[in-house]
Every structure is written in C-alpha cells, then in structure tokens.
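REQUEST FORM: STRUCTURE PREDICTION
Request ID: SP-0412
Submitted by: Lab K.M.
Chain count: 1
Length (residues): 456
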Amino acid sequence: MGLQQKGMHGTWASRWTFIMAATGSAVGLGNMWKFPYVAGNNGGGAFVLAYIGCILLIGVPVMMAEVAIGRRGRQSPINAMRELVAESGVNSSWSYIGWLGVLAGLLIISFYAVIAGWALEYIFAMASGELSGATGESAAAVFNTLLADPGRLIFWQTLFLMLCVGVVIGGVKKGLGVAVEILMPLLFVMLVILLGFSIVRGNFQAGWDFLFNIDFSALTGRGVLEAMGQAFFTLSIGMGAIMAYGAYMPQNANIGKTILTVAFFDSLVAIISGLVIFPIVFATPGIEPSAGPGLMFISLPVAFGNMPGGLLIGAVFFVLVTIAAWSSAISLLEPGVAWLIEAKNMTRVQANLLIAGGIWVLGLGSVFSFNIWADSTVAGFTFFDFLDFLTSNVMLPISGLMIALFVGFVMQQQHVDDEMQGSSALIMRCWRFALRYVAPVAIVAVFVSGIYDKFF
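STATUS: Completed
RESULT:
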C-alpha cells in the first residue's frame, strides 16, 4: 500500500483551505513587529527586494520540500520521516528530522502563548480606555505592571492555550479547516480596515518612505543575512507544522504553485502591517519605531491613545495580532497531537489535553522570566530568552537544513517527482538547484551569524 493512502487524520477540504492554513501558520507576531522595523532600518525597499529574493531562493524551496515530505508520508512528522527514511533505505538518523521539528514547535508555542496573552490583555486595555492619552512613560508603566504580575500572565496564557485546544480538538476538517476559513479572511479584512485608518489618520507618506525608499547603501551584508533569516523563519519552516499540514494536502494540488501563493500572502501581510503601523507611529510626536515588544506594547498604545478613534482601532489591532498568533499556534500544536493519536492510540481530546498541559507547565518558566525569575540567568539567558534562542537560532536552522538535504539528496527522486507532479522540467531543475546548493549555504550562514552575534 502506498504511503499516500495511509493518512488517518483526513485531508483539507480544498487546496485553498491548505493555502489559508499554511498562511495562518506562517503569519505571526514576526510579521507584525519584526519585518517592518528591520526593513526600514536596512535600506527600506532595498531590504524588501532582498527579502523577496530570499523568499524565492530559500524559503519557498525548503517549504516545498517540507510539504512534499508531509504529503508523501500522510502522517505526523515523526512517523512520516520514519517511513520515508525506511523507504529510502538510508541511515535511520535522518528520521530525527521529524522529532526535531515537533519538539521545536512545542517549545516555541510554550513561550509564544505567553506573548499572545499580552495581546489578549491589550484588547481590553484599549477598549476600556485605560490607555487614553497615554504617554511613553504611562504606556511603559502599564506594560511593566502586566509583566510583573505572574497571575495575570498565567490567566492570559491559559486562555490562549484553551483557544488553541478548542480548535485542534475538532480535527483537520471540523477544527483546523473551519478555523482557518474563518480566521484568515477576518485577518485580511481587519488589515484593510487598519490600513484605511492609517492612511486617513497617520503620516502615511513617512511610513511609506520608511519602508520603501530604496537605499542600497544602507543594505549591508548583515542586512542581507537578516533578510535570509526573516525569509526562512517567516514561513514556519522546520517547526513540524508545515510538514503536518502537508500530510493533509489534497494529492492533486500542485505544491509549487500552492507554496508560492502562501509566500505571497505571508509577505503581503508583513508589508501591509508595516503600512499600518509606521504611519500611525510617525504621526505621533515623541515616539520611535522601535522593534519587538517596545513597538507593539508601548509605542503603538501611545499612538492609538492620542488619535481620534484610536482606542477602538487599537482594540481592533490587538484582535488582529491575537488572530495571527492563534492561527500560528494551532499549527504548532497539531504535529504533537497527531503523533500521540498515531503512536499511543489516544483520542484527539486526550492528546490535546496532554500536549497542552505540558506546554502550559513549560510556559510557566517564560511567565516567571519577566518577574520572579527575572534576575535568574545562565550565560545571560533568562528561561524565556534561552528557549527563544535555542529554537530560533539552533533548532530551526538545523531542521530546515536537514529537510533541504534529505529531499535534495537522500529521498528517492521518483518519490520526489511523484509529489512535485505538475511542475515543468525547468521549474524542477531550478527548485532542485536552490534546494541542494543555495538554501543549505544560506541556512548555514544564518545559523553561524546567529551564534556569532550571541556569543562573540
């Protein structure tokens, strides 16, 4: 019996459901706060061009390979890799790709849920008027008060995980499929509403110039590496999620065209997010377009709190952020749940509760990193910082590299061709070259630069 017939979790209702699911997995907090800031500080349009090039040469080829593995195996990443390794007749060590991706995804969701909890809190902080007329100092005080209260952080972390479990329990069609068919259109509608507000109320020209003025002199070698890293990480590569979602992909869907569509939508969300955020930031005197939590939870609340209609739009913005985080998080939960169903014969309810319970306990370490454990560091890492560094700078690059090498050199070519049917000979040659030679070199460069920046 061919591997394609062994799926036990069902398939997506259509190719477009897979596109929405994969886009939901890819679109996350990094699209909202990291991409626009990094682009603006690395030559604007020059960085955007480099980023798009890296998406096409690195992100898309590796993502296609990961989907091909998933669809060939039709099981959780762990079991799919085990069977494909046996089918290829190679060393069983290659099967650890599945374990590495699933483990990385679960570690990521443990701290991702904590950050998503902040966004949930800010929906109500905006809607209640707490941040009306906020200054930089008062907004920072609100944020710091939240971080200092482990009880509140645990409440929001728990609520967010319950939202994720509620979706994944429903399975592929009734849970994940229905959720993404609702969440992703809603995300794009909210983006359009926020973009309209930004055009009318913000300094749109300044935001546009910050993102798109092409200045190649500002795009350094380090900026190109950042473009590579952003292109790789934004597509959720190496986390097990795309492999699991690929297992549910209809057999007649063209992988190449489908993944290009996902990459387009993911990049579109990142660019529109920048055009939403920075005109609002630049329209408010005295605040800077900082990256990370400082932009999302301090600068933007000041901007929203001092604009007509800003509090309502601010609440909508944090609903948008929550949806982006939610659609990503369910994709990280699914691979581990699928494996427990297959390997331990658990029901979906049992598997979800066990995985989510473990994630919740692990997430307490991230919660406490901002308060009672804030001064407890090892080699400069808090617990939260360590998990972030381990997953982003070590596990994901290694996982992505091994996926590229496995499909590029190890997996039987006929089996790869079976999954990639519908692509022209020229496209296949270009894809194989990028997968075998371009992507591995780029991933190693990103990996080495990440380690170097942290320790040297």
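NOTES: The two ends are 52 Å apart (CA to CA).
Reviewed by: T.R.
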